[in-house]
Every structure is written in C-alpha cells, then in structure tokens.
Design brief:
The structure is a homodimer of 328-residue chains. Chain A contains ten helices and 13 strands. By secondary structure, chain A is α/β, with parallel strands linked by helices. In chain A, a hairpin with a 3-residue loop joins β9 and β10. The model of chain A has no long low-confidence stretch (mean pLDDT 94). Chains A and B meet through α8 of A and α8 of B. Bound molecules: calcium ion (2 copies) and zinc ion (ZN) (2 copies).
C-alpha cells in the first residue's frame, strides 16, 4: 500500500526522554535531529511508587501525542540524578535530592509497560552524550563536560565512549578536591569544587554578604520573601560590587583548578562548561588553565555549552544512537 | 632436523627492556614470565647522539648474550621519562631530567639497527603495564598506579588499556593539585601532590628541619658530605621525631587527597602505590580514602606494589603482549 509506505518514510524517528531531577520530572519527545517536539513537566514525587507511576503516565501521554507529530518512538531514555548501572538500567544510589531511589530497576517496569527498549544513565553522563551527539562534542574523541547548577556534575568521553568506572561513579567531578581543608561539602568531605563553585556554594556566600549588608548595590533590591541566591551575587558583581566579584573569582578559580586536575588525569582535548553558571566561569577557567596546567595539557579548548536541555537530549541520544552503541 | 625443533621449543620468548631515567640508562633481558635474566646499567648520557648510541650498544650486547640464555628476543620495549606517542614510538617532550629529548623518534633508528620491533611509552604508563601483566593489576579491568620516587608519576588502566589522552599526557598524576596555593612545584604551578609527597618534596622538608636542628634524634647521624634526604626524614619519624612524623603525615594526606580525586574521575577498583615511598604512604592513603571519598568510591583497594622493576617489566610487557595489543 503506497500511501502507508510514504507515511512510514515521512515518520520522524524519535525518542521519549525522561529527566529525573531534584525538583521536576520531565518528559520530552525528541527527534533524531535533536528537536524537542514537546515537553511535559511535573514535580518529581517523593516516593518510589508515585514516581514510577507518574513516569509511566507521562510517557504514555507523550507516546500517544507522538502519533500526532508523526513520530516513531524508538525507545525511552532516562536521565536521573544519582549513580546508575546503565547495562542493567538500574539506579544504584540516589543523591539526597531524590528520595526512595536506591537499587531501583527502571528498565524492567517501564519496558514492560510501554513495550519499548529503555536506557538509563546519570544526568552528568547524559549531558556528555548530548554534547557528543548535538553539541560541541560532535566528532571529538576525548572530552569532558562539567555542569554547574545547584550542585556540580559531569561526564567524561574517552575514545568516543563514556567512562563509567568500576562501580559506575566515574566523573563525580563535583567532588574533586582543590583544598586540603576548604569549605564543607554535602558529600561529607571538604574543599570539593562543588563546595566552592556550585549554585549552592554561591548562595551560601551571597547570604553571608547579605547578612553583613554588603551584597546589595545601587540598582539592586531583594524582596522580603525572595531567597538570596547566586543570581544576586552575579548581579551585584556586574554592578560593581567588588566583594561579590571576588567571591565569583575565587569560585571560578577553584572550579578551574579542579578542571586542571581532570586535564592531568584523562587529558581531553575539550572541556565543555554547562549549566546556568557556565558563562560566568568560562574566562577564569581559561585563564587558570593557561597558568596552572602543564604545557602539554594547555591545548585543551574550554567552551560553554550551547545546549538548552543537555539532560533530556542526552537521554534521547541513548535511544537514537542505540544501533551503534555497545550497551543493552 | 629434530634437535633444532626441540631447541626452538625450549627457547624462552623474551624482550629487551630499556629504562631511560634521569640518572641511569638500563637494559634488561626479560622472559615471558617476568624473570629479569640479565640487567645492564650505565649513566644516561647528556646528549641525544650519545644516548642513542649507548642504547644501541647496550641492546646489541644484551641481544648477543641472550643467545647464551637460549632466549628468543621478540622486540625492544622502552620506558622513558617524558611524554610519548606510543603509536609512533616518538618521545614528544622530556622532563627536565633528560636533556635533548624532545621530538625524538626512537622506533626508527633502533628498529632499523636491531631488526626488531620497538615499542615506547612513558615510565608511569610502563609501570601500569607491569602491574597489569606481572603485579597486583593482573586481571583487573580498571586500576591506577601512582609512583612516588624523586617525582610522582602514574598510569591509568581503563577497560584493560592505558589511557593516553588526546595529547599523550594523561595520568600526569604528580601534577594533580590539592591546594589552591600550596608549595611550588617544578611544573610551574603550586599545590601539586608532587610538591607535597615526592622524594624531592620530602628532601626539601628534611633540609628545613635539619637547618633548624630538628631532624636528628638519638640513634641518627648525617655525615658531613651526605645530603639530607627523605630517608633521614623517615628514619627520624620511626625513631620518634614527631616533627618528621608530621611532615610525612601531611605529605601522605596530600597524596591521598590527590588519589581521591583520581577515584572521583575514573573510578578504578584498585590503586597500586609504587616507588620507594609507597610503603610509607599506604596506611594514610587508606585512611584518607575512607574519610574523604564518596561512599561509592570507597570500595577501591589500596595496595603497595610488589614489583622490583616496574619500568623495565612494563617496557618488556609491551613486547611480550604485542600479539594481543592494538598498537604498532
Ligand atoms: Ca557523572
Ligand atoms: Ca604517566
Ligand atoms: Zn564533595
Ligand atoms: Zn606540578
């Protein structure tokens, strides 16, 4: 039947991408070219059962709507906070931000319910896969992405593949330490780059300045109910607050020393900074790399990601690249 | 001819191993089982020409003598300080300790003169290969070796292969920084673990203590012409000098934080400490890993190498494993 054949050819090969974060549970329909055709967002439930139910419900809704877009869904890719065994599709251990999320087999229930293959990896690794397929990492054999949001995560591509490590906790780049003491980190250690340069860390410093009445400068205000955050620190620095500027520089320098440590360990040719804070760190990272990396490692490019949704795009890429991938 | 066949069967498949260090040039005949059948040592010449000539001379002598041991030499493996492109057999850049050793093609002249295949890699990488074939790394898919001698070097095995990186300077583990400032390092940066925990760093601290008359304790002496070194620091600590002990602990703690950074980057299942200082650092490294690594990374074993000649054995292993290796 001729018209069906045409329809089939005109179908867009697509993926359902799921992003499980500390706050939201999001699902998207993403095409082979990386277009986000439709995006759904809900708050991420606090219990395992509600979360699985909501993932299924949102995926079914998206899969139904995909028909309207003439999309053929090839599978489901899931990005989640925490440590993941991607071979098994199991979340081994979650961050504190996602509750009831230890030893969770995501592949079996979702694959069984939706009759689709399912891939799972952690959000930092998904971001790296997204850069590989759709971003600055296209065609780059060895690169690293460092994501600075609330916390700091990352992913390492070596010989075109993610490094997962022996217990799937490689690229825990937020917990690279750049000080023998330094500020306390959520992980229990001290001096981690997350404790210097994450959104949380900047918020901590912004609050300190605000408590001392040294944050706000002319042209700025913080409403009573509004929490002081990294945003205010950046705004204050831009408006000439030298204390705020110093905090941002110190944070950037710490992040950069951590990145030099990565260069001296896996020697990538490219570092992709990603997340809301990335643009503020790019210059200082470049500067510190030129000052403190070995000459032979200084050739590494440092760029800011241009992807708007690295976690979702990376989750989709696990599906879209499956024929050429080793896993599953 | 029957007896010749038997002879052939009884031959020991062997390698010529060359180790180019800051002080010595050494050559050894090493069997498939890792036995060092014969070892030659000379001072490493200061010029490129003399060095190449001496390598050839020593290799010819060793190859001749190998016949007496009924060894069949399969090739030449070379371990050298500096950065190496192992695909090409070229030394890209040397450490300050080896002069006239930049952009040196080692493979072509040695292969041409000896009519044998030649492999080259840097000493830290060779040490990792040695552990993989003959040491604690046997059968371990992902591990790291950290060598503390005069400086600090290392090698990373990931999926049973060395990580060389995009410009062949991966595993420059000595220049992982654990302080935003910290002691100056030979590389031009500060706070590198080499600047805290290498033989050079301990010698610097030993001299400081000695200058303040706080190094020697009862039962110790330093002859006038003898340079104060890490050995005296270790001896003093053992004899109850708490200042010396503190220096060693601080050095070990810095090394350990650097090792935790490696765990959080490539997540190996095993860390092999090697070099003369390794036994002194094993306990503190274990302790710091248990205190400062993420729970999921704490499972990494920390052991001290049992190999006496990691560089030579690793150089030999490049030859002995060549049939199963991808390079060359
Ligand atoms: Ca990660
Ligand atoms: Ca190395
Ligand atoms: Zn941490
Ligand atoms: Zn250094």
């Amino acid at each position: 039947c001729f018209s069906q054949d045409i329809d089939y050819v005109l179908e867009t090969q697509s993926a359902l991408a799921v992003d499980l974060g500390g706050t939201n549970l999001r699902v998207a329909i993403i095409s082979m070219k990386g277009e986000i055709l439709k995006k759904y967002s809900q708050s991420n439930p606090n219990t395992y059962e509600e979360r699985i139910d909501l993932i299924l419900k949102m995926c079914v809704e998206a899969a139904t709507e995909a028909v309207r877009f003439n999309c053929r869904i090839l599978g489901v890719g899931i990005s989640t906070g925490g440590r993941v065994n991607p071979h098994e599709g199991v979340v081994l251990h979650s961050t504190k931000l996602i509750q009831e999320w230890d030893s969770v087999d995501l592949r079996t229930p979702i694959s069984d319910a939706l009759h689709l293959p399912v891939w799972v990896d952690n959000d930092g690794n998904c971001a790296a896969l997204a850069e590989k397929k759709f971003g600055h990492g296209k065609g780059v054999e060895n690169f690293v992405t460092v994501i600075t949001g609330t916390g700091i995560g990352g992913g390492i591509i070596h010989h075109n593949e993610l490094i997962h490590g022996s217990t799937f906790c490689a690229a825990e780049l937020g917990h690279i330490m750049v000080s023998l003491d330094g500020p306390e980190c959520l992980c229990g250690s001290r001096g981690c780059i997350e404790a210097y340069a994450s959104g949380m860390a900047l918020q901590r410093e912004a609050k300190k300045l605000h408590d001392e009445d040294m944050l706000l400068v002319e042209g700025m205000s913080v409403k009573n109910e509004e929490p002081v955050s990294a945003v205010h620190l950046i705004q204050a620095a831009k408006l000439g607050n030298s204390k705020a500027d110093n905090v941002l520089r110190a944070a950037g320098a710490a992040l950069a020393v951590g990145i030099v440590n990565i260069l001296h360990t896996v020697n990538p040719s490219l570092v992709i900074l990603s997340g809301v804070l990335a643009p503020h760190y790019e210059n200082i990272v470049k500067h510190v790399v030129s000052q403190r990396a070995l000459t032979s490692a200084q050739g590494a490019n440092v760029v800011t990601s241009e992807l708007e949704e690295p976690a979702l795009l990376g989750a989709a890429s696990m599906v879209l690249d499956y024929t050429t991938r080793r896993l599953y």
